[in-house]
Design brief:
The protein has four helices and no strands. With about 150 residues, the chain is mostly helical. Helix 1 runs antiparallel to helix 4 and helix 2 packs antiparallel against helix 3. The radius of gyration is 18 Å and the shape is elongated. It starts with a helix and ends with a helix.
Length: about 150
């Protein structure tokens, strides 16, 4: 059972957390291009993948329950949980709202014809900074899972 849960943990990590980290970077390109609809779609997708990333945690807890050499008291486990929670909060409360507001602003500019091509829209820096921080936090979680410090 541990093998199954560990496999599900890794597979969902790749196919759910990967897009959670990468989609905001695609949104920044769409923001620069002034594509309001694309930014809105990417914000919605990022939100869905971010919420689905809780499955990764669930499978990780399940796998941990079957392991004899690790527990919640292990440094790498609780630190991974804290870093993941921070990445989740940054994504849900900084990155996604910035993407949504940028899509709304781009839609308004498009409707009024005031958009200047190639200009960064409001929220671009928040998306860039927030997604970068969230990605670094997620990389730190992976590193902790590989090295498993006491």
């Amino acid at each position: 059972m541990e093998t199954l849960l560990s496999t599900l943990h890794i597979v969902t990590g790749v196919f759910i957390v990967g897009p959670m980290a990468i989609l905001p970077m695609s949104a920044m390109r769409s923001m620069r291009a002034g594509e309001a609809g694309q930014v809105a779609a990417l914000a919605k997708s990022t939100n869905i993948f971010t919420l689905l990333s809780l499955l990764v945690v669930l499978f990780g807890f399940g796998a941990l329950g079957f392991r004899g050499d690790s527990s919640f008291a292990s440094t790498w486990v609780w630190l991974s949980i804290v870093l993941y929670a921070a990445a989740l909060v940054v994504s849900l409360f900084l990155v996604i709202p910035a993407m949504k507001s940028a899509s709304e602003l781009l839609a308004e500019q498009s409707a009024s014809g005031t958009r200047v091509a190639g200009v960064k829209v409001a929220g671009y820096s928040r998306v860039a900074m927030g997604s970068g921080v969230a990605s670094l936090l997620l990389v730190a979680v992976v590193v902790l899972m590989v090295i498993k410090p006491a």
